Amino acid sequence: MQEFRREFLRMAGLSVAGGAAALLPNMPAQAQHEKHENWPGFHDVRAYGAVGDGSTIDTPAVNRAIQAAYDAGGGTVFFPAGTYACYTIRLKSHVTLRLDAGATILAASVPSEGTTTGGYDPAGPPQPWEAYQDYGHNHWPNSLIWGDGLENIAIVGEGLIYGKGLSRGEGNEQPRAESPGVGNKAIALKNCRNVTLSGFRILMGGHFAILLTGTDNAVIDGLTIDTNRDGIDIDCCRNVRVANCAVNSPWDDGICPKSSFALGYARPTENVTITNCYVTGAYEYGSLLEGKWKLGTYSETRKAVGRIKCGTESNGGFINITISNCVFDRCRGFALETVDGGHIEDIAITNVAMRGVVHSPFFLRLGERLRGPAGIEPGVIRRVLISNVTSYNAVAEYPSIIAGLPGHPIEDIKISDVFLHQLGGKDAALAAIIPPENEKAYPEASMFGPLPANGFFVRHVRNIELSNVEIATETADARAALYLDDVDGADLFRLRFPQRKDSGQLRLRSVSDFRLFGCQHYADTAGSRFEDKVI
């Protein structure tokens, strides 16, 4: 035991110096339950007055422990098994929160109307740029756990963060998210650096289970999130790693890089990797954590969400993003959107498996909502690679969509080694539709209405290459597999089409520099210009 204690003290010293280390991940059970308060740099919340009975408000004790750790130059604030009902927990630099197995931080209920004490920290005054993003993106203190301008911080362990008392940020909620004392985020970090979130679970995280804004050098690893709106939002951040996470978010997005104007200026989200993650919108929240996998109830107007999406907030854009080895289960497909002037450049998506996608498997949209300061112009999407993807049983109405604007094409798209299986079954009436542009509409796969393709709808694009792509339909479909409109430079190699049809699978409208080659049942075809041609 003495050898173990010496090793622990060495680790604790490194933590204070380097911060944000995930302390004690493999500490023997006997040592974990010794007198932690006597260990340098280690602060058990019960030693500061926390009760952990699920009803006593433990916020003052928790914040005292955090302050003591900070005053000592850094350390670990430890939550042993118990349920700690809290309002706003205020993080400090060089402090790690460690949730032991059996420990729950419970978001306490909002005090009754008219109560003058208690509740979550005030959201803060309105910002001049408030109208450019949702209310929840403009404010951080009104959260269960939050910090601003911090460094070397971590939340780790096997415990649970239960946002029972948090608002979902919906306008019809009572009390509303804007009301005094209401909190609407489980974890909110602004302008922080060197952040680790590892191992714990979140149930019902409010509007955002995790919201990082302007936060750099962050690692999010091994979380299980079962929530009633957004899972992980990464807004205006640099150098973020999301790995080994499972997110069930039936009512909103699962993992969502954004680039809003919430900081008062446009800042890109860049150098982000998302890998080895599972996202779904299929299950009632709580069902994933319980292991019951109870399917939710949806309708044509309220489909599951739960996906990975870059957007919609897109003032700063997205640069250098990779998404790999991820599973989409009965949710919307991957979305890449810039509608507020930001640039999207150098995106790689590979090794993705999807089942039961309820919207487009892939949705790439360059639009001009332009929600931001006056004078901004439409952005760009360019250099996007998609490879090694399988999608099974996707909804019939929405093929994969790659849609720019007239005069602002999406550029340099390469899609390879992809199998897209759609339900199909649509008739010839849809094949004749010319969808509206809807330049300023909210970006979503349903924004154009029914589409005249069952595989890909591609409009206002320059330089697109598809190779080793198969499109299949469960039921015969009268629409073209590929619909290309206003496309300059299309190179199609080794494509396979539904039911092995040998005609009518490509519709070309205003297509220049076109080549089709190496496709079974089809003669190689090339041309400098096709105004309206069916192949």
- Rounded to an integer in angstroms, the radius of gyration calculated over CA atoms is 25 Å
Span from first to last CA?
Answer: 76 Å
Q: Beta-strand percentage?
A: 35-45%
| Count of strand segments | 34
Write the layout of secondary structure elements.
Elements: H1 2-18, H2 29-32, E1 42-44, E2 53-57, H3 59-71, E3 75-79, E4 82-86, E5 89-90, E6 95-99, E7 103-107, H4 135-138, E8 145-148, E9 151-157, E10 160-162, E11 185-190, E12 193-198, E13 201-203, E14 208-213, E15 216-221, E16 224-226, E17 230-235, E18 238-243, E19 246-248, E20 255-258, E21 269-275, E22 278-280, H5 287-290, E23 309-310, E24 317-329, E25 334-338, E26 343-355, E27 362-366, E28 380-394, E29 400-403, E30 410-424, H6 428-431, E31 453-475, E32 480-496, E33 506-517, E34 525-534
Parallel strand pairs: 1-3, 2-4, 3-6, 4-7, 5-8, 6-9, 7-10, 8-11, 9-12, 10-13, 11-14, 12-15, 13-16, 14-17, 15-18, 16-19, 17-20, 18-21, 19-22, 21-24, 22-24, 23-25, 24-26, 25-27, 26-28, 27-29, 28-30, 29-31, 30-31, 31-32, 32-33
Antiparallel strand pairs: 33-34
Keywords:
elongated, 6 helices, 535 residues
